[in-house]
From TrEMBL:
<dbReference type="InterPro" id="IPR052159">
    <property type="entry name" value="Competence_DNA_uptake"/>
</dbReference>
<protein>
    <recommendedName>
        <fullName>MBL fold metallo-hydrolase</fullName>
    </recommendedName>
</protein>
<dbReference type="InterPro" id="IPR036866">
    <property type="entry name" value="RibonucZ/Hydroxyglut_hydro"/>
</dbReference>
Length: 415
């Protein structure tokens, strides 16, 4: 991994903003704006709409480059977009229409050495190509199509289904990752990471990694590991980009239907991506895995998601991604709204333990029920919040929290 840099488009890319609040994966580890980009020809021909997808790249533009260039852009933006671009408030970004989307045109030159900004093709494990940013402009372009609902997704048949099933969470910094398995087969539930875990140290194998030995055991040369991604934000799947071996062992990849994602239109991964709704993907005896497609009262990138429930040995775990409790409760007459009346032996605390996750916390089964906080050291986010930790402890959960952990470490959740 991370050998020689692979080719990036010459001079210009057309991009979608992933986050205003990234942290560079390479020194100096300063704040950055992270984007997914395509070449001029891919943009003009809408090549992402092809069944096979197109080449997609990841760009990290340092905040100092972004501030000096984005503020010079002359497109007349709506007030909400202007607020988002000035304040880095991701929730303030208005959704794109079904026909038109706001894109970022980035022009650049290759740098002679390490610089504040870089790019690399997604899902390749490539080393970064350092670039000097010339201009940033905001342009109107075609909207990305959402992933359609895949009909007739079958129940997964697994090896050794009669064996005891378990759920393991993993400390991955500012990200989420869990595996539901029986030591022979299983499901990967998100595979994201973030500060203090970063791409550079991961690929250089400078950190302990308890995830990959488990993946290698479950995903053999004959069988890939099915994966459920709660929603397409990169902190829920970035390790797939960092680690080609992990990527090659994963599939099919399930995303929430009805959501667009430029990254998952990459030609490398698109053929194994499926949009799904509410359904049970696995059931054998006392073990099961069900996913629930959200129906949020207001649409945003955290709300359009999949909520997963795993059951094993009479115990039940909730993995809601970034969909906080009060939003689940606010749904009317849906399977997710019914979940709020239940009790859980384990929860992966929603949205990394942010302030909103402290409200209307679902109830534990008993004093041994676990609340797992998957969070990192991102100074801007400040996850997990003390209010969320206190709220989960107050209703009776045993708290599992180690946001400063620099290694990828397993945490047993159920049974």
């Amino acid at each position: 991994m991370d050998g020689q840099p692979l080719h990036i488009p010459d001079g210009v890319m057309y991009c979608q903003i992933e986050t205003f609040n990234g942290v560079k994966d390479y020194a100096p580890r300063i704040p950055c704006v992270r984007l997914f980009g395509v070449s001029l020809s891919s943009f003009q021909n809408e090549e992402w709409a092809n069944a096979s997808g197109c080449e997609v790249h990841i760009l990290d533009i340092s905040i100092r480059d972004w501030l000096s260039l984005a503020n010079r852009a002359r497109l007349e933006l709506s007030a909400r977009w202007y607020k988002a671009l000035r304040s880095f408030d991701e929730e303030a970004v208005p959704p794109n229409s079904s026909k038109e989307s706001l894109w970022v045109e980035v022009t650049y030159k290759l740098a002679h050495g390490p610089s504040d900004s870089y790019a690399y093709p997604a899902f390749t494990g490539s080393a970064p190509t350092y670039i000097g940013i010339d201009t940033v402009a905001f342009v109107r372009g075609p909207a990305l199509p959402s992933f359609a609902m895949t009909s007739n997704v079958p129940l997964h048949r697994v090896q050794g289904s009669e064996h005891d099933w378990k759920l393991e969470g993993f400390h991955v910094g500012q990200g989420m990752c869990s595996v539901f398995h029986n030591d022979e087969s299983g499901f990967l539930l998100d595979a994201g990471a973030g500060t203090p875990v970063n791409r550079d140290s991961y690929q250089a194998q400078k950190i302990a990694n308890e995830l990959m030995p488990l993946v290698k055991k479950l995903a053999t040369s004959d069988t890939r590991l099915p994966m459920i991604i709660s929603h397409p934000d990169a902190d829920h799947w970035r390790i797939l980009d960092w680690d080609v071996e992990l990527l090659n062992r994963v599939g099919p990849v399930y995303l929430p239907s009805g959501r667009p994602s430029l990254a998952f239109n990459s030609h490398i991964i698109k053929p194994r991506v499926y949009g799904i709704g509410t359904q049970t993907l696995f059931h054998s005896g006392a073990a099961s895995l069900s996913v629930y497609r959200s129906a949020p009262t207001s649409s945003d990138k955290n709300g359009e998601c999949l909520v997963t429930v795993c059951e094993a040995a009479g115990k039940k775990a909730l993995l809601p991604g970034d969909y906080v409790y009060k939003r689940m409760k606010s749904e009317t007459g849906t399977p997710i709204s019914i979940l709020s009346a239940g009790q859980f032996d384990a929860v992966v605390v929603p949205h990394h333990g942010d302030e909103a996750s402290s409200e209307q916390v679902f109830l534990p089964v008993g004093s041994e029920s676990k609340a797992f906080f998957s969070a990192g050291t991102h100074q801007g986010y400040g996850h997990p919040t003390q209010s969320s930790i206190d709220a989960h402890r107050a209703v009776g959960f045993d708290i599992l929290e180690d946001h400063a952990q620099r290694d990828i470490v397993s945490v047993p959740l159920i049974p």
